[in-house]
Each structure stands twice: as C-alpha cells, then as structure tokens.
Amino acid sequence: MKLAHKLLAMAAIAMAAALPAASHAIEPIVVLNENFNDISTLNNWALINKSIPPGQSWSQGNAGVFPAPSGPASSYIAANFLSAQNGMGSIDNWLITPVVTLIGPSELSFFTRSASASGFGDTLEVRFSPGSGTDTGSFNTVLGVLGGISAFPTVWQQVISSLDHEGQGRFAFRYAGDASAANYIGIDAVVVTTVPEPGTYLMLLVGLGSLALLRRRQLTMNKPGRFSTC
C-alpha cells in the first residue's frame, strides 16, 4: 500500500503541473438558459417593481415595437416608461434570475436593445448578489450599465459580464431612470456559464484516486480464504 500511496501522490503532482495548461480546454457549465418564450411560465425568477409610484411590471415582448433576435417575434421580456405609474415618476424595476451555483470564473451573457425614438434614453444596470435572497438592497456588485449618459443600443446587441465567485448567487437587471425620459427595452437569451477552477479538478481527481485505492484494499481484504486474528 505504501507504493500505491506514493504513486498516487506522484500522479497528483503531475496533474497539478498539467492543469494550468489544460484548464483552457475545460468546457463551461451552463447553469441558466432562458429565452423568454412565455414569461408566464418563468421558474424562480423574481420581478420586483420598486418604482415611485409603481406601475407596470416586466412584460412579454411586443413584436409591434420590435421582434426578438431569434425565435417567435415576441419571445423576449420587456419593460418601458410605464414602469412608473402613468409614465411619471422614478423607475426602479427589477428582473432577478433564479439562484445559480457558481464554481469559479463565470459569465452572464444576454441580448438587449431599446426602441428607436429620438429624445428618449433608457438605463439598464446589471448587478449580482451572493446568496439566494431577492432583497434588492443586497445587489451591490454592479457588473455594468447600459444607457444612461451613453446611448442604449437600438439594435439587438449581446452583452457579456464576467464574475469570479464560488457559491450561490443571483444576477439582476435593474431598469431605472426618469420615467418621462425613458422609452422601451427588451432582454433576451440570458445565459449563465461557470468554469471550475483547476484546483477543483485536482481535488476531484485525487479524491477519485483515493476511493479507487480504498476499493482495491477492500476487495483484497474480502478475498476467499483471507482471515485476520485479533
């Protein structure tokens, strides 16, 4: 058994040396994929409208304003200036993903655009909160802001945000701003992927090797004719 343990230790060292180069080939794990074909069936998403005064929530995409980038024309989720009642007030409309479990470097990707209308401007913040709660005050990590002082895309554009986190968490889209200046935005094809850290693979492989050695030892002990005395 001493020889077996020595060989296992040598193999672990060899894997540790090889993993940094091999990690580039590790396939990302998809932990969330939502295309908003029918938002009435969304599972574990949270739609929270904290606008003052609150108006309409997020809604199914309106193909008459613009179609989805792919699939059925209305297969996206949308919010507009009516997030604040009667289009007057301050917009603070949240779309929060289900809980996802991240195990290393991760990416949130999605498509978004606004309606083409002169004189209006939309703002969308992308945020993250560790844990499983939906308290909007906990989404303190800002991953990016679209619109605001810059122009919001008026054609579908893919946006990718990166995050290095291990554990549970939620991403959030916060549609915000002055309702009188806002217009209409859509979000589609939300995908979250995560990639295990090389060290995670190393621990897994060493653990599997240890289990294999234990299993082999158990099989040897259980061979017919073998016995032991106290």
Describe the 3D structure.
The protein has 230 residues and is an alpha+beta fold. It has helices at residues 2-22, 198-221, and strands at 29-34, 46-49, 59-60, 77-80, 90-96, 100-114, 123-130, 141-147, 157-178, 184-194. Strands 1, 2, 3, 4, 5, 6, 7, 8, 9 and 10 form a 10-stranded antiparallel β-sheet that branches. Helix 1 runs antiparallel to helix 2. Mean pLDDT is 84; it is low at 5-16, 18-23 and 219-230.
Considering the chains and any ligands shown, give keywords for the structure.
alpha+beta; 10-stranded antiparallel β-sheet; 20% helix; disordered C terminus; single chain; 230 residues; 2 helices
Quick description:
This protein is an alpha+beta fold and 230 residues long.
Topology:
Layout: H1 2-22, E1 29-34, E2 46-49, E3 59-60, E4 77-80, E5 90-96, E6 100-114, E7 123-130, E8 141-147, E9 157-178, E10 184-194, H2 198-221
Antiparallel strand pairs: 1-10, 2-5, 3-4, 4-10, 5-9, 6-9, 6-10, 7-8, 7-9
Mean pLDDT: 84
- Uncertain parts: 5-16, 18-23, 219-230
By DSSP, the count of extended strands is 10
Give the class from helix and strand content and strand pairing. alpha+beta
Q: What is the terminal separation in angstroms?
A: 21 Å
Largest sheet: 10 strands, antiparallel
The outline comes out as globular
